[in-house]
């Protein structure tokens, strides 16, 4: 949670005011050392920051230094500065943030969280931190989700109603709405999802000159909130109403068409616009969404009067997809020696890249808190299973950038709970010269990040980002792996 708070703080620095801008500028000053410095340089910077702490005049100076030390992975030094600041500013933001992290987020039950929240707003009232409503909105969203998971919809809705930042509240409303939908509480979920959808639409349709970082952040949630709300309308057979929302959305944000495609198809079918629905399915299938095949075949037969020609049509769509993937992976091609590693797996056994020479190795850098990473895992599982009998291919899932002290237990719990048959390695061993974990040595700047390494130990492909499309991931991995099996031609 500290990492998320820092990231968002820097994201919004340009719109937050002079103090926050200074903080961002001071952090930026040390980015070269944070990102590319040697271990000696990082140690020297940490030492210099500790030496200057005594001269700080504002709490903001302490906060910036804490964030820098966190990014340098100087946990002990960071705690030292935190303790000094807590003593100097017992009613300040740093002490409050430590309370939120150590007490609120570590509370086990909703009742305990609620008690911690009451203590939070009593000791650190919102009115005393009017420039930081987002900090409290994080807490409120978490508390609301906890009550929603308990089945206590009234309390969940109550705490969502306390949120202040319109641009961000969808991040609380959407998860709670989805939890309530799973519990079949459509009555409570629908207005929450509609509010999130309306908020996103408002920011999405602002004049370009008014779109600041907040507006851009808010508009990113439009497809998910829209899809969830319109699915409710479709389930209620309110197809015309659903179509009106969708078609307005596609005019305002045509780039979100993929995220709305399935609900658009259902709405078109519900209003009898079958040819348009067929065109939607064709595009989905051509992008690797093979789960729609039964609907596509049925609609093809209905529109053409028979099933004749369908197999050739189907094959042409798959051929088009395969060629698109082959063209796409050319953009990911590279050629350089893969840094060697020797890391521990979940059983405490050592696994090295050198021991896998002669195999094509797929490295997937991920973290338990990384939603795009988790979203891609069903597809990666399908890809791994398709190579289960190929002794020349090895998948390794490199768990990295975890922040919790008990990260190993969290990783084991996550993998076990989801029944993933992955070989997971802990990327927590730092290079003695640079102080970098393997993710940094591979040049990873964001996760998920995947590397395809050939049998000679060379990186042949590097890709970032994710999709939840299982079939597409499976096809893409096949093309990458099979290409890496072939000799490098330069």
TrEMBL record:
Signal peptide range: 1-19
Keywords: Signal
Keyword Signal set for record: yes
Single annotated GO MF: oxidoreductase activity
Gene Ontology terms: biological process: response to stress
Pfam families: AhpC-TSA
InterPro entries membership: AhpC/TSA, Thioredoxin-like_sf, Thioredoxin_domain, Thioredoxin_ResA/DsbE_sf, TPR-like_helical_dom_sf
Keyword Signal applies: yes
Thioredoxin domain location: 332-486
Protein name in the entry: Thioredoxin domain-containing protein
């Amino acid at each position: 949670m500290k990492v998320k708070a820092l990231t968002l703080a820097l994201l919004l620095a340009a719109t937050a005011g002079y103090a926050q801008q200074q903080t961002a500028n001071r952090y930026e000053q040390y980015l070269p050392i944070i990102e590319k410095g040697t271990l000696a340089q990082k140690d020297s910077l940490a030492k210099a920051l500790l030496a200057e702490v005594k001269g700080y005049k504002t709490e903001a100076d302490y906060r910036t230094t804490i964030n820098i030390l966190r990014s340098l992975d100087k946990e002990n030094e960071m705690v030292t500065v935190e303790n000094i600041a807590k003593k100097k500013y017992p009613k300040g933001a740093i002490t409050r943030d430590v309370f939120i992290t150590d007490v609120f987020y570590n509370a086990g039950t909703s009742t305990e969280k609620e008690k911690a929240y009451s203590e939070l707003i009593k000791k650190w009232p919102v009115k005393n931190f009017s420039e930081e409503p987002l900090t409290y909105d994080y807490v409120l969203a978490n508390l609301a989700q906890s009550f929603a998971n308990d089945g206590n919809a009234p309390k969940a809705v109550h705490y969502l109603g306390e949120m202040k930042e319109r641009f961000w509240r969808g991040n609380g409303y959407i998860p709670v709405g989805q939890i309530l939908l799973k519990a079949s509480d459509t009555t409570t979920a629908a207005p929450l999802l509609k509010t999130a959808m309306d908020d996103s639409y408002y920011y999405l349709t602002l004049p370009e000159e008014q779109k600041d970082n907040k507006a851009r952040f808010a508009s990113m949630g439009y497809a998910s909130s829209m899809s969830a709300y319109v699915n409710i309308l479709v389930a209620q057979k309110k197809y015309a109403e659903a179509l009106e929302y969708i078609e307005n959305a596609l005019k305002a944000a045509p780039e979100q068409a993929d995220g709305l495609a399935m609900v658009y198809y259902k709405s078109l079918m519900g209003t009898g616009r079958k040819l348009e629905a067929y065109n939607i399915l064709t595009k989905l299938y051509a992008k690797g969404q093979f789960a729609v095949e039964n609907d596509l075949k049925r609609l093809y037969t209905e529109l053409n009067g028979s099933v004749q020609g369908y197999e050739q049509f189907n094959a042409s769509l798959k051929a088009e997809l395969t060629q698109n993937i082959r063209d796409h992976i050319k953009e990911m091609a590279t050629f350089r020696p893969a840094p060697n590693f020797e890391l521990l797996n979940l059983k405490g056994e050592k696994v090295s890249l050198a021991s896998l020479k002669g195999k094509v190795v797929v490295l997937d850098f991920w973290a338990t808190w990384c939603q795009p990473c988790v979203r891609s895992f069903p597809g990666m599982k399908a890809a791994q299973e398709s190579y289960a009998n190929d002794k020349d291919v090895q998948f390794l899932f490199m768990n990295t950038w975890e922040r919790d002290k008990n990260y190993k237990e969290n990783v084991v719990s996550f993998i076990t709970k989801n029944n993933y048959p992955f070989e997971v390695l802990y990327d927590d061993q730092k290079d003695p010269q640079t102080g970098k974990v393997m993710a940094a040595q591979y040049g990873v700047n964001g996760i998920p990040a995947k590397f395809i390494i050939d049998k000679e130990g060379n990186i042949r492909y590097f890709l970032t980002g994710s999709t939840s499309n299982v079939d597409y991931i499976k096809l893409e991995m096949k093309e990458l792996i099979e290409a890496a099996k072939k000799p490098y031609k330069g």
